[in-house]
Fold this protein.
Amino acid sequence: MGKYEPLAEHLTALPRDRWVATFDEIERVLKFNLPPSARKHDAWWSNSRKGNHSQSRAWLDAGWYIESIDRANEKVVLVRSAGAGATEVTSAIHELWQKARSLSGIRDSAALEREVVESFIRREAGRRLIARGGTAPDAWAPDRRRFG
């Protein structure tokens, strides 16, 4: 029995398809403290079967994946997989969120999600306005450098 097997068993037994858990709740299920890396690095919560990620193999093998992680508030959202291929899709999405965190410097999941959605809305509104012959007065572009 692996170290994270109690978590897999708990997830398998849950009657619902979504579990919003605090780190403390997960520690109670496991009966030991999460490692410091779980509190310091989003990568610990990745949906990866590669490397030494025995924790992620536990939830993936139980048919669950991490939907979001909020380390600042020590909360994680786990969702039951919809079927074959769901884990790979979720892993790819998680990698995109990791890249967005890295590029933006925003670590809080809720703040990052809000910024991404607002940015998408601004972009789409501007695109649609321009397609109708309008202008986007609040659009910003860096100054052009002139050579020679």
About this structure: The helical segments are 5-13, 23-30, 36-40, 54-61, 86-104, 109-131. The first strand starts at residue 18 and ends at 22. Residues 5-106 form one domain. Residues 109-131 form the longest helix (23 residues).
